Each structure stands twice: as C-alpha cells, then as structure tokens.
Amino acid sequence: MYGLINKAMQSMICEKFGDEQWDRIQAASGVPEDSFLTMRSYDDAITYDLVGAAAEVLGAPVDDCLKMFGEYWVLETAAKSYGPLMNASGDTMVEFLGNMNALHDRITGTFLDYVPPEFEVEELGDQRHRIHYISKRQGLVPFVVGLLSGLSQRFNSELEIHHQEQLDVEHGTHAIFEVSIR
Ligand code: HEM
Fold it and tell me: In this predicted model, what pLDDT tens digit does every residue of 8-29 receive, in sequence order?
C-alpha cells in the first residue's frame, strides 16, 4: 500500500502512545526504515506487519488496532491532508458513502496503479442501509468498521451495525454491513 497509509499509522501511534512506543513497534515489525514515503507504493506486507507489531507492543487485539486506525484515518489524516476532497464528497454519511468510489477514482492520477476498495450502498428504507465493502485484500474488515465509525463522528450521525457478514470469495474480501444511520 502507498506510504501515506504507513505514515498515517506512525502518526497515530506517536500521537496516542508516544514516540518511544512507535520505536518499539517499528523495531518489532522489522519493516525497513524507508517504508514511509507518502507517494511510494510498498508491499502490503509492510502495512500488515506494522499492525501486527502494534498489537503485540500495545497488548491489544489486531482488530482493535485496525479499528482505531480507521477512525484516525477519517478524523485526522483524511480530514487534515485531504480536506477539500473530503468536503466535496458529501454532506451526509450516506451521500459520502455513495461517493466513495468516485473519491478513490478521482485520485488515481496521483496514486498510480493503486488498488483501492469498492463500496456500494443499498437503501433498505427506515434509515437502514446495506453497505458492501469489496476489496482485493483480506483482513481489513475491522479497518472498515473503524472508518464507518469515524465517518459517523464526522457527520454527527448515529451508526448502529445490526449485522455483519463476509461472503466466501476466492480472492480478497466481500463484506456486508447492515446498518442504521440516523
Ligand atoms: C481523501 C481521502 C482518501 C485518500 C487520499 C485515500 C487514499 C487511499 C490509498 C492511497 C489507499 C491505498 C491503496 C493502495 O496503495 O493500493 C487507500 C486504501 C483504502 N481506502 Fe482510501 N482514501 C481516502 C479516503 C477513504 C475513506 C473516507 C474511506 C472509507 C470509507 C477509505 C477506504 C479505504 C480502504 C478500506 C482502503 C484499504 C484498501 C482495501 O480495502 O483494499 N478511503 N485509500
């Protein structure tokens, strides 16, 4: 994944837990020191190794670390580094989710050959929605839970996840969330 993802994780750990914990996490992860250039694409394994090391050093489950990172990505990284793009992508959480593919499409000129996920939103009525998350990768569903939580905070919405399931796909992930957004 692009270095900005790894760099955002570094910023989150330093802000929330301090530079020393970050040094321990980086050492435990064994990832090369030059894995954090925003506009360079790195092997996905680097990102996964960082998350694994964060879980180990912080003594927290991997899923919790990914969720925390999802919230941080929306509320800090994207809001601060990509404010205009975020602001142009919707005034409500549902509108924003409907524009997620367009958001990632708009930056394909910047992030060459990157592999963003796809989102689809089905309206079920009575403020209920079915959100599909489709990715070429595995293991990032808790990150998406954190992203959704971050978005609900961004838009002052109340998010309730009623049901979550993963379809059996050969490569990657297709997860479905049934949610209420109020
Ligand atoms: C303007 C802000 C954003 C930028 C610049 C951005 C950019 C990126 C980049 C560069 C990647 C790495 C893909 C790769 O290197 O192959 C990525 C991945 C991802 N993005 Fe975004 N993104 C933004 C906002 C969002 C938001 C708001 C969401 C959530 C609703 C989101 C969901 C994801 C997910 C889940 C991934 C992980 C890749 C996967 O699931 O396969 N992004 N994004």
Answer: 999 999 999 999 999 999 999 9
Q: What is the rounded distance in angstroms from the CA atom of residue 131 to the CA atom of residue 101?
A: 13
At 24-66, the pLDDT tens digits run: 999 999 999 999 999 999 999 999 999 999 999 999 999 999 9
Q: Report the C-alpha gap between 48 and 1 in whole angstroms.
A: 10
For residue 101, the one-letter residue type is N
CATH superfamily of the 73-181 domain: H-NOX domain (3.90.1520.10)
**Nearest residue (CA) to ligand 1, atom 11:** 116
Judge if the beta carbon of residue 8 lies within 6 A of ligand 1. Answer: no
Ligand 1 contact via 13 beta carbon (within 6 Å): no
Which ligand 1 atom sits nearest the alpha carbon of residue 82?
1
Check: CB of residue 83 under 8 Å from CB of residue 77: no
User: What's the CA-to-centroid distance between 101 and ligand 1, angstroms?
Assistant: 10
> Residue with the nearest Cα to atom 18 of ligand 1?
116
User: Which residues of the chain are in CATH 3.90.1520.10 domains?
Assistant: 73-181
